[in-house]
Automatic annotation (TrEMBL):
Recorded metabolic or biological pathway in which this protein acts: Amino-acid biosynthesis; L-threonine biosynthesis; L-threonine from L-aspartate: step 4/5
Gene expressing this chain: thrB
UniProt-recorded name of the protein: Homoserine kinase
InterPro entries, A to Z: Aminoglycoside_PTrfase (IPR002575), Homoserine_kinase_II (IPR005280), Kinase-like_dom_sf (IPR011009), Pseudomonas-type_ThrB (IPR050249)
Gene3D superfamilies: 3.90.1200.10, Phosphorylase Kinase, domain 1 (3.30.200.20)
Enzyme Commission code(s) on record: 2.7.1.39
Organism: Methylopila jiangsuensis
Domain of life: Bacteria
The reaction(s) this protein catalyses: L-homoserine + ATP = O-phospho-L-homoserine + ADP + H(+)
HAMAP family xref list: Homoser_kinase_2
An individual GO BP term: threonine biosynthetic process
Protein keywords: Amino-acid biosynthesis, ATP-binding, Kinase, Nucleotide-binding, Threonine biosynthesis, Transferase
Domain Aminoglycoside phosphotransferase, residue spans: 27-258
Amino acid sequence: MAVYTEVPDEDLAAFLAAYDVGEAVSFKGIAEGVENSNYLLVTTTDRFILTLYEKRVERGDLPFFLGLLEHLSARGLTCPQPVKARDGSVLKELCGRPAAMVTFLDGVWVRRPTPEHCAELGHALAALHEAGRGFPLKRPNALSVDGWLALAATARGRSDAVTPGLDALIAQELDHLAPAFAGLDLPSGVIHADLFPNNVFFLGDRLSGLIDFYFACDDAYAYDLAICLNAWCFDPDGGYDPAKGAALLAAYHAARPLSEAEIAAFPTLARGAAIRFLLTRLVDWLDTPPGAMVQKLDPLEYLAKLRFHQQAESVAAYGWTAP
Ligand SMILES: Nc1ncnc2c1ncn2[C@@H]1O[C@H](COP(=O)(O)OP(=O)(O)OP(=O)(O)O)[C@@H](O)[C@H]1O
Ligand SMILES: N[C@@H](CCO)C(=O)O
C-alpha cells in the first residue's frame, strides 16, 4: 500500500485553490509504490498525480527532484512535469506533509520485459543522461559505497537468519568493491538510480515515459546502466538472459557510446548495483515489522545476481561486445 496519509476533501479543496487546475472530479489513492502517498487526481481540466512525501524522502532533496523533472521535461524527455501553483512554486504542503502535483503519464509497465523492451530502455536511459547535462543542482549518491557500508553495519549479525553465510559474503564483497569503486573515474552526471520495470511506461511496444525520480543523484552513467541490467535482464527463474542484456547495452551504446573505461568497469559496476539492492532489501526485510502493510522485496534475488556478476570477467559475459 502506498497511501500513508489520508487527505480530507476540504484540505484538498484548499490545496487546489492555489493552482489553476480546476476543481477535483475524482481523487483516488494509488496502491502501487512504497515510498510516498500517491493519489490520482482528476480535475475539471486534466489528470494529475498528487504526491505527499513521507518520511523516507528528505525535504531538502525535493528541490533537486522537482527541479530535475522540470529540467528533463524542458529537454524533451517524457517524465512527469511538476505543476506550478499560481505563485510559481511547485512544492506546497498538504496534511502536514510536503506535497507536489505532477502531470499524469499514459502507459503501463511491463511485467515480462522482452529484448525489444530492453532496447527501448537503453535508448531512453541514454536520452535521460544526455538531457540531465547542465542541471545545476547536485545530489551525491547516498546509496554508493559509504551507504552500502552503513547498511551492512545495520544488518551485521542478523543477515544469516535470511540465509546462512550472508554476513560473511557481504563483508567480503564490500572489501572487494570499496577499493574497486574508489579507483573508478567514469563519465558522471545525473542518473535515475532506480529505473526498474515498474518505473518505465510503455504504450504497446514503445516506451512512453519514465517516472519515480526519487533516488536520482549524481553518479557514473554506466552505473545506472548496470542497475537497469540487473532489474531488466534476468528471467523470473533467476537466469541471466543475454539477449535482453545485449539489446540493452547495444541500444544504450548506439545513443551514448560507452568509453573503454566504462566497458572495462562494467562487471564491477554490476556487482555494486547488485549489492546496493541486496542491502536495501535486506535491511527492509530485517526491520519491517510483521504485518506492516508494505510489500517486502526479496534480498536473495539480488544475492543470486551478485553471484552471477562475480563470475563475469568482462562485458562479454553479458552477451555483448562493443562494435
Ligand atoms: N506521473 C505519473 N503518471 C501516471 N502514473 C503515475 C505517475 N506517477 C506515479 N504513477 C503511478 O503511481 C505508482 C506509484 O508511483 P511511484 O513509483 O512514484 O511511487 P513510490 O511511492 O515512489 O514507489 P516506489 O519507489 O516503491 O516505486 C506508479 O506505479 C504509477 O502507477
Ligand atoms: N526498486 C527497488 C525498490 C524501490 O525503490 C527494489 O526493487 O529494491
